[in-house]
Amino acid sequence: MQIVWRNEPDMAEYEAARWRRVFNQRRPERFPRAVVRATCQADVIAAVQLAIKLQVKVAVRSGGHSFEVWSVQDDSILIDLGDYKGVEIRPAEGTLTATPSTTSKEINELLAVHGMFFPSGHCPDVGLGGFLLQGGMGWNCANWGWGSEFVEGLDIVTAQGTPLYCDSQQHSDLYWAARGAGPSFPGLVTRFHLRAMPSRRIWSSGYIFPAALYRTAFTWALSLELDADTEITAKAYYQESQLCFSVFLTTFEGTPGGAAKLLTRLHASRPRGTLVEWCCQPETLDSLYESQARSNPQGHRYATDNGLMGNEVDVVSILAEPFLSLPHPKSLAFWTSMQPWSRRRLPDMALSLQADHYFAIYTVWEDEADDDRCRAWLKQAMRPVEGACIGAYLGDSEFANRMSHYWDPKSTVHLRQVRQAWDPEGRIAGGFPNGTDRSVCRDEMGAHHHQHPLLVGVPVDGNKQNDYSE
């Protein structure tokens, strides 16, 4: 186990360890006491025991793709899992185990050899740890379900440094929390036990419109009737200095010829006026990952926000401002439909907010001098959106910018209880403002005056047409 201390003479080594694999170049002024480069579960246990001895918190880094940079917390022991790699595939059972630092691209390259696929994150370098703990908005999740729904069990290390296994039968409260609690999970995952899918052929259609046709194109996208293997997204972004609004359809073909039939039918209904278009183009996961990497370039500064929007909301009107006023040529705004998942009864898990529409802004720039302008634009652009949202997705949230609701009220209370039971001292640092969310565990009825709003139960949209399982 390699440990790099903050007070070592070679500060360059400490700085390299502090920021190793961190995706967002807009980095917080926070300083762990030490960084532990773990290579196995025993290293994780030893790091937690060290934190207990020093009476400091523990933070963890899986893939380093958090926009909030949750892993870097003041006066903590940062456990970097980047060197802890391990995947075991069981083709006959259709299952696998994987360590948290395994990335989306890595897991699917290994599975492809066995004719298998996992609905991981869209970005190739996202680690499974953060992705799955916060729910896992992966490939075609509106139809297949979120990544957390494919988690069958977990190996974890508790806040007391104890290794254990949890699933629906053993330590089921931790299993419940691990599927959607995100940085509120009161333990450290060392291995996921997952269910996979058979590999699929992939096809896409794309329609890039000038921004002037935003309403026409978005209204068309909302009207499309899709099958259970097709994902729809819409994006606003700059292409060769021109602001565009694009609609993309990605089909993971479940039946031979099904993709061509569906995408050809939808193509016939498209509005005229596209700048670029294609229909039923063969794709690979590699080509999709490459496209996503171009949209989320390395070495840039990011500020993000998002919302799950109520089912009866006029999304075309409400999203017009953020879609059509991006502050930087590399920024983008994104929408996807969450139906039919949004109308389905969920498994018993922490992930519990459902809505028909998901919207996110990825403000992307390079120059630190642009920080204030881009962040101010983000807050302004989200103001008309906030009132239409029932909550937000943890994966694209920055708590320092804006707090939202991440679980339904019943799940919020239960999560607080699970945290109190398994981490009463608040040992696990979850990336909350001021480096602590310890107070949320003190009083499940909300009587404690310092509770952070992240874990305070709030009502959700009364018009939602969902049946919560909790």
UniProtKB/TrEMBL annotation:
Highest taxon above the source species: Eukaryota
Pfam family name, one: FAD_binding_4
PROSITE patterns assigned to the protein according to its UniProt record, in alphabetical order: FAD_PCMH (PS51387), OX2_COVAL_FAD (PS00862)
Protein name: FAD-binding domain-containing protein
Family: Belongs to the oxygen-dependent FAD-linked oxidoreductase family.
Protein keywords: FAD, Flavoprotein, Oxidoreductase
Provenance organism: Aspergillus campestris (strain IBT 28561)
Positions of the FAD-binding PCMH-type domain: 28-199
InterPro entries: FAD-bd_PCMH (IPR016166), FAD-bd_PCMH-like_sf (IPR036318), FAD-bd_PCMH_sub1 (IPR016167), FAD-bd_PCMH_sub2 (IPR016169), FAD-linked_Oxidoreductase (IPR050416), Oxid_FAD_bind_N (IPR006094), Oxy_OxRdtase_FAD_BS (IPR006093)
Molecular function in Gene Ontology: FAD binding; oxidoreductase activity
Ranges in coiled-coil conformation: none
Cofactor: FAD
